[in-house]
């Protein structure tokens, strides 16, 4: 059934779009479900990491208590006090007594301990081993061991856990719990007590944790080295720096990384007891496996929906595009000046009605344009005559060349009258006038602007009746940089008008500086005058932000304050763009600094 009327077509096709939208609910359901599952997995990994850290801390604290039980043993404390010149019998007696009274019961209670040993500051040492090959050490070996432990333990007797062993062939397989202890006769910490245990025994704590076939846990110390890893070859090696930085940055949050070859998710928890980080690692493909069936179903339904939507969209678009294309062709002809109507299709709907209105519009516009052309031709001659009259009027207002010639005449009369002051003032005014009326030059070099300022100072010196110099700190390599003409002299003039209201003094300074920073060429005018209050500075900055030329407004004192500054800011923007301009810094009674920012463009040599 053919649907007549554009409105009915819109209703019918939108009804189909609504049905398709309902079908797409499955996609949103998949997205929401996948997000919830990922959150659940992350929470599960977080709980696993937290429980593993808790059990690990309990395991290490148990061994800490074992060390604490040895600290009160009198034989151990007396052994620490043995002099370096001890008798061999005393050494043998203490070694035997310590084993029988303290070490053997400790090995019985903790069969996983590998060794226990004592080292005193007087280089006396005893070693006890449990189910490992016994080692013997000379005085030099004992000294090296003592130096290592002193460098890696705290002076206040706190417990330290190190990835270290004295047993040959067991490197990177043992953990050493060590602390400094005192002797029997002195409160000073003058000895070391250490026990060693196998780091692989930590894995027994996590047997009840289900991480799937490819998940596992590993431990990293505060220096980024593996303390424990299912891959024994990694124990003792350093974690890649990029992964370690990402691990520290993530904190308690999960993150993904592929440094182990495949994309895996990691969650870490830091032990407050040992400063280790216990990391749970699981492959992302395993975490997302439950979503595969949902994804497949969603893709099938989505593909079917997409094909149906494309077919319906094609039919819908074709029903509208054909008459619109006809309208488009007619409009192109209208743009060319061909005021032609477009043919109408046999059926009638809203688009066809639009085409009818278009033909009527074209007909009326054609008639209107013909009338406008005739009126415009007659008015153009009148406008040209009016513009010519205005131009002539502007020329008659001031003739710069006439003024310049007049100033030259005054110079001649001053020379005849032997008045060097008048001659100097008029020459300066003549240069400034000629410089000001160079309407064909909007950009000028810094050197020319400084020359203009120099002539201004000549006039100013005669006006104020005293010598005054400006400190120009601009380096020679910046003198040929391009800047906007007539922007530096207004800033200098503003200083003499506002910065020194009570007149110039010897301590007054005006400094002009410039340079290039990050592609920006800047020139500053700085003084040590009265400065501006915060309110006045804020008001002036707000005027600068309006990006408009000053309109001659009068301040409280009856002066046109800030007009030159505002116009300098706007003229820079009109030449180089809104991102450039003038920036003002000022503090009351400390002075003002005005900084012009322009692009760093040295003078182009023709």
From TrEMBL:
Which residue range or ranges hold the HAMP domain?
Answer: 318-370
Q: Where in the cell is it found?
A: Cell membrane
Which keywords, in A-to-Z order, does the entry hold?
Cell membrane, Kinase, Membrane, Phosphoprotein, Transferase, Transmembrane, Transmembrane helix
InterPro entries tied to this protein: Bact_2-comp_sensor_kinase, dCache_1, HAMP_dom, HATPase_C_sf, HATPase_dom, Sig_transdc_His_kin_internal
Give TM segment ranges: 12-32, 294-314
Q: Which SUPFAM superfamilies does UniProt cross-reference here?
A: ATPase domain of HSP90 chaperone/DNA topoisomerase II/histidine kinase
What's the superkingdom here? Bacteria
Fetch the Pfam families from UniProt: dCache_1 (PF02743), HATPase_c (PF02518), His_kinase (PF06580)
Provide the membrane topology annotation. Multi-pass membrane protein
Q: Which stretches are annotated as coiled coil?
A: none
What is the name listed in the Swiss-Prot or TrEMBL entry for this protein? HAMP domain-containing protein
Q: Which organism is it from?
A: Paenibacillus anseongense
């Amino acid at each position: 059934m053919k649907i007549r009327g554009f409105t009915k077509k819109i209703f019918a096709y939108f009804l189909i779009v609504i049905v398709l939208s309902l079908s797409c609910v499955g996609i949103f359901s998949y997205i929401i479900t996948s997000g919830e599952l990922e959150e659940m997995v992350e929470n599960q990994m977080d709980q696993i990491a937290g429980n593993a850290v808790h059990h690990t801390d309990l395991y290490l604290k148990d061994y800490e208590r074992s060390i604490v039980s040895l600290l009160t043993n009198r034989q151990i404390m007396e052994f620490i006090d043995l002099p370096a010149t001890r008798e061999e019998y005393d050494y043998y007696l203490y070694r035997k007594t310590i084993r029988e009274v303290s070490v053997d019961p400790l090995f019985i209670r903790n069969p996983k301990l590998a060794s226990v040993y004592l080292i005193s500051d007087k280089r006396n040492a005893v070693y006890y081993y449990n189910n490992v090959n016994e080692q013997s050490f000379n005085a030099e070996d004992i000294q090296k061991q003592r130096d290592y432990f002193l460098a890696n333990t705290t002076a206040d007797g706190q417990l330290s856990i190190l990835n270290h062993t004295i047993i040959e062939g067991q490197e990177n397989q043992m953990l050493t719990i060590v602390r400094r202890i005192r002797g029997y006769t002195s409160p000073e910490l003058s000895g070391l007590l250490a026990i060693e245990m196998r780091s692989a025994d930590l894995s027994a704590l996590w047997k009840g944790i289900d991480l799937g076939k490819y998940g596992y846990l590993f431990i990293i110390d505060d220096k980024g080295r593996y303390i424990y890893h299912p891959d024994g070859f990694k124990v003792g090696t350093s974690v890649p720096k990029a992964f370690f930085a990402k691990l520290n940055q993530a904190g308690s949050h999960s993150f993904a990384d592929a440094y182990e070859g495949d994309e895996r998710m990691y969650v870490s928890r830091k032990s407050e007891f040992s400063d280790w980080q216990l990391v749970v690692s699981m492959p992302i493909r395993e975490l997302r496996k439950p979503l595969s069936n949902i994804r497949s179903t969603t893709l099938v339904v989505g593909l079917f929906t997409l094909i149906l939507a494309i077919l319906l969209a094609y039919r819908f678009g074709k029903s509208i595009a054909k008459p619109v294309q006809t309208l488009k062709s007619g409009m192109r002809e209208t743009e060319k000046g061909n005021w032609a109507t477009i043919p109408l299709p046999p059926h009638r709907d809203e688009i066809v009605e639009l085409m009818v209105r278009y033909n009527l519009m074209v007909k009326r516009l054609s008639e209107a344009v013909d009338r406008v052309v005739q009126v415009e031709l007659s008015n153009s001659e009148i406008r040209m005559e009016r513009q010519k009259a205005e131009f002539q009027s502007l020329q008659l207002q001031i003739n710069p060349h006439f003024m310049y010639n007049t100033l030259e005449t005054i110079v001649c009369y001053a020379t005849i009258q032997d008045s060097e002051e008048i001659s100097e003032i008029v020459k300066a005014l003549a240069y400034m006038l000629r410089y000001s009326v160079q309407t064909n030059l909007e950009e000028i070099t810094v050197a020319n602007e400084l020359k203009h300022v120099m002539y201004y100072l000549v006039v100013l010196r005669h006006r104020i009746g005293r010598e005054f110099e400006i400190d120009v700190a601009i380096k020679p390599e910046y003198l040929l940089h391009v800047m906007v003409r007539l922007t530096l002299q207004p800033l200098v003039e503003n200083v003499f008008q506002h910065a020194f209201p009570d007149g110039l003094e010897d301590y007054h300074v005006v400094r002009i500086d410039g340079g290039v920073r990050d592609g920006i060429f800047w020139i500053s005018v700085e003084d040590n005058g009265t400065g501006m209050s915060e309110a006045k500075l804020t008001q002036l900055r707000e005027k600068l932000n309006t990006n408009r030329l000053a309109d001659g407004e009068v301040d409280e004192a009856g002066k046109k304050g800030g007009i030159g500054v505002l116009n300098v800011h706007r003229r820079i923007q009109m030449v180089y763009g809104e991102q450039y301009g003038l920036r003002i810094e000022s503090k009351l009674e400390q002075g003002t600094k005005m900084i012009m920012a322009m692009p760093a463009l040295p003078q182009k040599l023709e």
